[in-house]
Design a protein that fits this description.
This protein has 212 residues and is mainly β.
Length: 212
């Protein structure tokens, strides 16, 4: 069976000298092999303030609709928004807990975040992002209703220009897990504190150069 899904949306960007912001909203026709034409949606709003030449701070919120996971009242409609072509951990935290890999059972997502950035103007940058995740939907078994809290994540990163052709970057992230997320991912014995560290070196030398 061929399922045809369409996604429509609008974006608004504001770029001022000291303030930048974005508003976006999308709707999605989301059929499955057993349902027809169920509507899903998502929206995002964020704003960033340039405090001075070096520091900036931003806040934002993303909301993606989802399905109730309710064994006492099964949901036959599919209202889970699917970001089919999302760009990895650019959204929803660097550790990719949502919409990648093991996923989170289609219960939607509310991601509320705070960003802080520092640019020295001399070749290095520091960034920090704090996320609070919730599900907007019901998560319930026959014997228990789970809390909507899906955890918190802190992402720290840096970038340093070593010379004209080499750049060093890296970061550290940790995730404070919850019982609800463990249930959704079917990982009941997962640790409450998850962490990830990365380091990269980008080298882009000029091998040949000519003058006319």
């Amino acid at each position: 069976t061929l399922n045809d899904s369409q996604t429509f949306g609008l974006n608004y960007f504001y770029n001022g000298k000291k303030v930048k912001g974005q508003l976006a909203a999308y709707v999605q026709n989301n059929p499955t092999p057993t349902t027809h034409g169920n509507t899903a949606f998502m929206f995002t709003a964020n704003i960033d303030f340039k405090l001075d030449k070096q520091w900036n701070i931003g806040i934002g919120s993303d909301y993606l609709s989802g399905n109730d996971l309710d064994k006492t009242n099964p949901n036959i409609n599919n209202k889970a928004f699917n970001p089919y072509f999302h760009t990895g951990h650019k959204f929803y935290g660097n550790m990719d807990y949502f919409y990648a890999g093991n996923g989170h059972n289609g219960v939607g997502l509310s991601d509320n975040y705070l960003n802080i950035g520092y640019n020295s103007g001399k070749g290095y940058e520091l960034k920090a992002a704090l996320h609070q995740f919730f599900t907007p939907n019901v998560v319930r078994t026959f014997t228990k209703e789970y809390d909507k809290n899906l955890g918190q994540e802190l992402d720290l990163s840096f970038s340093a220009k070593l010379n004209n052709f080499a750049n060093l970057s890296g970061g550290y992230s940790f995730f404070l897990n919850t019982e609800t997320l463990n249930y959704l991912k079917n990982t009941p014995t997962a640790d409450g504190y998850q962490q990830w560290i990365w380091l990269g070196l980008k080298v882009n030398p000029t091998l040949f150069k000519t003058k006319n």
